[in-house]
Amino acid sequence: MTKFSSILIANRGEIACRVIRTAKAQGYRTVAVYSDADAGAPHVKMADEAIFIGPSPVNESYLVQEKIIEAARISGAQAVHPGYGFLSENADFAVACEAAGLIFIGPSPDAIHLMGNKAEAKRRMLDAKVPCVPGYEGADQSDRVLIAEGEKINAPLMVKAAAGGGGRGMRLVNDVAELVNAIKLARAEAESAFGNGELILEKAIVRPRHVEVQVFADTQGNTIHLGERDCSVQRRHQKVIEEAPCPVMTDTLRAEMGAAAVAAAKSIHYRGAGTVEFLLDEKGNFYFLEMNTRLQVEHPVTELITGLDLVALQLQVAQGEPLGLNQKDITLTGHAIEARLYTEDPAQNFLPSSGSIDLWSPASGVGVRIDSGICTGQEISPFYDPMVAKVIAHGPTRDIARLRLIEALNATVLFGATHNSDFLVACLEKRCFAEGQATTAFIAEEFAEGETSSPEPDFTDSAVAAALQLSLEYEELYDRAVIVAPQLRNWASASPLISRKKYTHSEVTTHDLSVTPLSDKLYKVFNADNEVSVELISTEGTTAHISIDGMQHTVRYMKPRVGKIYLSINSRTNVYEDQIRLDGQQDEVDGSGKVVAPMHGLLLEIRVSAGDKVASGQTLAVLEAMKMHYEIVADASGTVTEVLVEPNNQVAADDLLIDIDTEA
């Protein structure tokens, strides 16, 4: 047996953190690698040591085999765990690790190479008597032969890149007249993505389930399966929600699919963790799709229903130890469902989004597990996959697991980059999914055009945001005051304070609100059609306990900058940006030179005149409000072009006071 005590994780994000957790728990020394974009990432902080491997683009860092091997040499790591993606299914990398004296925690290079080519894998599976989708996987790749074979199969059929995955190099052909163009497009995409234009053709299985079987094999010849996972909920051939076990699975079908998966693994002398993927049609027939020679993204649902740690088993097998498990030892308990949290915009055809994570606060609770690789303050880089976390729930029944997952998604807070949490909840709440009837056509069939958008905030949501935002602004003023009694907050002698907040959520939804403090914590928010009272009972950190017309709620919020606030209320998360500030150019960080009154008050002092040169941050005027003196400062350097008010006059919130030419 070959033993190791230190492991380099050749990956990043969620999976790197996942591997590090188990490895450290078992006493292994862990080494992370990172690019420029990931210098402050959680996986870097979690590891015992971290090695820099280059610029942010993957082909200059995480995909450069020589840099990974050199990082292992420098750190003294004895083994490499590839995670998923990147180099995890690269046979040449596995060879390079072995040549460098490193243990590759995965299958043999031959197994990776064989199953990495869909055509060769399908030929091997046919030899092993594993059921396969009828089609063409021949060596002759001429257009003439592909078109002729496609016509034999007849529509609908799939054109697939033999070396592909993740939906790239794949085309659905609903009419044989489309075949010529589909072949051309699929081949071009395959050559671009994988450097290999080889194609296979398969009969399209209409409305199938995507069901995969987790297999595990040691070096002593023991191969078992750990049950199945249903991964049918997908967009662009990418999985979104996975669960175990499959809702329509029977004991007989599980035994048959499990036996086929084990036969597939044995036929290539497999070792370690692998997943054999099948299409399951409406009649209960299943067909081999492909084999992933690595740990899957969705492995946590298998862990939760089997009670096994798959990463720990990987480390065990990689050292030549037996699994210590037989098929009869595997029992499935309860149900688990996983939702992939992506920073993407479902309303824009799931377009990936980058940006900052202003607040990350994952849920916790009975039966809830969160696997993530992000933290508050981190930037979401455009260079990597947009999946940032997995929210998983386990329960004694499928419906309990489903409800726990909905609750966990609603309680998980990610402020900043656009994400798909609301869409995930919508999927889980669909009757089709709740009844266990989802197929790979689920999203296309269940969501009409435009329905993937998050629900827009209503008047009450915006009213809460306005009250919170105004309260935070007042808090800042109070903190800057010298000596003011707490009971004088929100009080003015001249007239009731009325502040205006205007939030535009879409072309058709704008909430133009007036906010009046009624007491220290109570606000009246109204417009021409609605009125509501919002009481801020207590606030702690980013959590507030509030009352809306006497009904209490707990909300999460954050103010990343002046004029902007995030609010999560009753499972709805939105960003509220005060358009009055934007229109009036009064955001201090805006740098526009338009200086406005932040609130209703008495203008005590003007310290500049037209023609004066001023610097950013310089005090321009003093405003008295709520018995506090508030210094109004320049938000940009420049020359004062106009002073529009005089001292000892009342001004309203958002009144333009001073104009500065920032280009002077």
UniProtKB/TrEMBL annotation:
<keyword id="KW-0547">Nucleotide-binding</keyword>
<feature type="domain" description="Lipoyl-binding">
    <location>
        <begin position="586"/>
        <end position="661"/>
    </location>
</feature>
<dbReference type="InterPro" id="IPR005481">
    <property type="entry name" value="BC-like_N"/>
</dbReference>
<keyword id="KW-0436">Ligase</keyword>
<dbReference type="Pfam" id="PF02786">
    <property type="entry name" value="CPSase_L_D2"/>
</dbReference>
<keyword id="KW-0067">ATP-binding</keyword>
<keyword id="KW-0092">Biotin</keyword>
<dbReference type="InterPro" id="IPR011764">
    <property type="entry name" value="Biotin_carboxylation_dom"/>
</dbReference>
<dbReference type="InterPro" id="IPR016185">
    <property type="entry name" value="PreATP-grasp_dom_sf"/>
</dbReference>
<dbReference type="InterPro" id="IPR011761">
    <property type="entry name" value="ATP-grasp"/>
</dbReference>
<dbReference type="InterPro" id="IPR000089">
    <property type="entry name" value="Biotin_lipoyl"/>
</dbReference>
<feature type="domain" description="ATP-grasp">
    <location>
        <begin position="122"/>
        <end position="319"/>
    </location>
</feature>
<dbReference type="InterPro" id="IPR005479">
    <property type="entry name" value="CPAse_ATP-bd"/>
</dbReference>
<dbReference type="InterPro" id="IPR005482">
    <property type="entry name" value="Biotin_COase_C"/>
</dbReference>
<dbReference type="InterPro" id="IPR011054">
    <property type="entry name" value="Rudment_hybrid_motif"/>
</dbReference>
<dbReference type="InterPro" id="IPR011053">
    <property type="entry name" value="Single_hybrid_motif"/>
</dbReference>
<feature type="domain" description="Biotin carboxylation">
    <location>
        <begin position="3"/>
        <end position="448"/>
    </location>
</feature>
<dbReference type="InterPro" id="IPR001882">
    <property type="entry name" value="Biotin_BS"/>
</dbReference>
<dbReference type="Pfam" id="PF02785">
    <property type="entry name" value="Biotin_carb_C"/>
</dbReference>
<protein>
    <submittedName>
        <fullName>Acetyl-CoA carboxylase biotin carboxylase subunit</fullName>
    </submittedName>
</protein>
<dbReference type="InterPro" id="IPR050856">
    <property type="entry name" value="Biotin_carboxylase_complex"/>
</dbReference>
<dbReference type="Pfam" id="PF00364">
    <property type="entry name" value="Biotin_lipoyl"/>
</dbReference>
<dbReference type="Pfam" id="PF00289">
    <property type="entry name" value="Biotin_carb_N"/>
</dbReference>
